[in-house]
Structure formats: structure tokens, C-alpha cells
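Appendix B: complex inputs.
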Amino acid sequence: MTETNRISARNVKVFYGEKQAINDVSIDIASEHVTAFIGPSGCGKSTFLRVLNRMNDTIPGCRVTGEIKLDGQDIYGPDMDVVQLRARVGMVFQKPNPFPKSIYENVAYGPRIHGLANGKTEMDAIVEKSLRRAGLWDEVKDRLTDAGTALSGGQQQRLCIARAIAVSPEVILMDEPCSALDPIATARIEELIDDLKGRYAIVIVTHSMQQAARVSQRTAFFHLGTMVEYGPTEQIFTNPREVRTKDYITGRYG
Amino acid sequence: MTEPALPPQVSTWNSPEMAKRLQGRYAAERRFKAIGAGAVALSLSFLAFLLFIMLRDGLGGIDWAFLTGSDSTDADTAGIWGAFKGSLLTMGVTLALSFPLGVLAAVYLEQFAPRNRWVDWIEVSINNLAAVPSIIFGLLGLAVFIQVMGLPRSSALVGGMTLALMTMPVIVIAGRNAIKAVPPSIKDAALAVGASPVQAVFHHVLPLALPGILTGTIIGMARALGETAPLLIIGMRVFAAAPPEGVTDTATVLPMQIFLWSDEIDQAFVQNTSAAIIVLLAFLLAMNGLAIYLRNRFETRW
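Resulting structure:
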């Protein structure tokens, strides 16, 4: 299988006001893989993730230099529409954040604002397909009108994944999606990530090295705002090239 | 380096000194509760006294003729409907102006305005505006609405516009707090599926903030309903023998009617004054009740 690079970033630097959060990161993210970002707290991995769909635009004083291309198109370029970008690069957050609306409405919101469905039947189909892909359909199909916030934490997070899937993104960014979940719910999300990886390029930020090892094919190790090492997950965990990576994965710090 | 000295260890928690200490703490607790309850009782007793006097003097004056009539020189035929309708029209104008202006200003300041010195300055000004004495708004209304814009004196239109100036900052402040209380994660969620910032705010943030905004609006409106001073200045101190037909007609409002009747020499107007106060208080209580109902009904818990 030949690899296609969905996202390629070159010499990316991110500043919050005077403070530099990311220094000179270059990375290619392939469409067939799950890519994991690992590293100690404050290393910039979440910042870098949020740069990839310009969610950092909402933070005052945040500045990005360098080049990030999605399918060859510069996402910080003048002809990139940020609304469209975020539909193409979906995001799942650390804490499940369903809208305080019905399960159906949570999933239907994205397709509705982008005009992706023609009429109720098509919308119903999109909602069902998205919930099926997120592995939530069987649990909620009889109560689509119930509030999304009434679901359990793990179900809420899968609902958020369904919401992201519903607008047919090319890339899904996940910012520590399991950090608020118990081990069983975590296992379900990890299975789901495995199911989704053929269809979407997935980038996951995680604090858990075991999780990175379980779900990803590629791992990038971040430390103090730089990307120390990036390679196949197996190589990073068994035979890291850098001493800092080795020290981190063997638990010397972090 | 020497360690700082800790207090000597207590030999026993059951010693008489300890028991005495505990007793003292419990006594302080009881004293505070007694003083607090006393403060509540004192303030309530004033309210009870006021209500008692009003009901004793006024209840007999409330009948169908009083509730449907307008002002008259004869205390027996004078009624409250004219002033009540004047209040309704004035409040209608106030709400129609201050609610959209206040909510839009709150949304803009909270969600879209850049963070800089100018915006800080505007924020301080709005907070100060809410504290400006109402009579000053009356002078502004007289100067701008009546003298410059030439709108009809003594009308519900000018009264409503003047009170809207007063109510708007209250709605802005309540609105901003309500918008601030919506978790940013909801806005992030909307942005992340590709909603534009305006869509994220109007589809998600604003509906969640609405109960808080409505509560603040009703409290601001209740304050405007009881306002007399600015309306004195724009000439709503009038004898209106017929209820106003529209917002440009000469009108008076409930608190103004109370003021006018309380000024009458004829002793028979004492009952009318008290009855009018009962009507005004009932109106205010109904508005505050609505605010509490809305808050409880639509409050979202996170």
C-alpha cells in the first residue's frame, strides 16, 4: 500500500503572545494510519493538534508560522476557508461535550449547517450511519430524542465522535479522548478508533503510552515544544533513536 | 537550618481547658445565628407593616370600577386603568428597545469584541451607566427625545425610550454574565463541526444563556416599572382622564398615579393611593415570579 500524506507540516512554530509553545515541527500525517502524539504535560502536543484545524484561532494572541498543508492546500493560506477546514478536519475533545440537545440533533447539527442532507430521510440516514460507525446506534436507536447529556461518559464521547463523522471529515483529531473515561469505556473507544482508521486519518493526543502503543501505527514524541522523534509506533517503543524518547517511554520522567 | 517550632502537643482532647474552648465556640455559633435571624425578622417586619397598612387602607377601594376607570377629580369615580395601560405601553416600548439592544451588545462584547483598551473602556462605561441616578436619564430624555427629536411630551413613547436607556445597561450586564456561564466547550464543539462563529453563538451559546438573560431583563423591567423621577421630567405628571390609545397619547404610569393621588388634598384619595400601591405591588410580584419561574424552568445544569 502506498502511503498518501493527508497533512504535511513544515517548520511550524506557534506562539502565545511572547511565549513560544511549538518550535520548528515538521511532520507528515498519512491517511491510512492512526498517528499518536505523546509527551509530558505542557510539551505542546495538544497545541500542535489544535493548530491542525485552526481551533487555535479562538485563542487571542496565538500566532502560527511555517506551513501546514491539507491535501496540498495551505490551511493558513488566504484561500482556505476556516469553516470548511473544520468540517474536513473534525475534532473530538478531552471532555465529552455533547450539545445539551437530543442525540439526533447532536449528530444532525453539522450536516444541517453545511446543507449535506436533502430532506428528513437523508438526514435520518446520515444520523443512523454516523451513530453506527461510532458504535453507538444499538444503544440509542430507541431513544434518539433523549438528551445527549443524559448518556454515560463513554457514550457521550462516542456521540461526539458520531457528530464529527457526520460531516464526512478526512481527518479526525482526538485530544486525549479517553482521559475522562473509565477503562471499559476507554477500551470501546480504542476499538472504535481501530475500526475507523481505514476511512479517516486519525491523530490522537494521549497521556497514556500504552494507549499510543495499542491504537497507533505512528507515534510522535513531543518534549518542550519540539518534536523529538517520529516514526513507526513499534520502533518508537522498542528501539527509539533518541535518548529523551527512551527515557520518557521507560518512565524516567513525564 | 532549624525547624520552626510547632505548638506543644495537646495532652488530651478531653481536658477541661479544651471543653471550655469548645463551649466558647458553640456560644459564638449560637450568637451569630440569633443575630442573623434577628436581622431577617426586622427587615421582614417593615415589609409586613407596609403591607398591612396598604391592605387595610386600600383593599376596600379595589372594585371593578376602580380597576377599569381612569383618573378623575372625584375620588369615588377615579380608577387605575388609565395609569395601568400607560405603564403597559411604556414597558412595551422599553422592552422593544432595550432587549434587542442589550442582548446584541452583550453578545458582541462577550463573544466578538477584541480585547483592547477601547473595549475595556466601553465595559466600564456600561457598568457606570447602570449606576447613574434615574433623574439624569429623565433630563437626557427631555433634551434629546423631546427637544431635539420633537417627540410628543408626556407620551408612553418618550417615557419608554427614557426607561430603555436605564434598562439597557442592566440587560447588558445580566446578559454578559449569562453568556459567560455557558461552558466554552459547547462553542468549541460547534466550531469543530464547522459552524461559523456567528452560528456557534446564535445556535448554541445564546439559547443556553437565554434563561439568565430573561431573568436579568425582567428584573431590569421591574425596576423601570417602579421608576418615577425620570418620567416626572419628561412630563408624565399629567391628569389623564382617559386611558392612552397609543404610545404617542398623553399618558401617566402607575407610580406616577400614586404620586399624584398622594398629593391630593381630598382625604378620599387616601384609599385610592393605597389601592393603586396594591395594584403596582401585585404587578411587580407577578414579574418577579415570572423571573423565578423562567430561571427554574429553563436552567441547564452541567
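Chain B touches chain A through 20 residues (CB under 8 Å).
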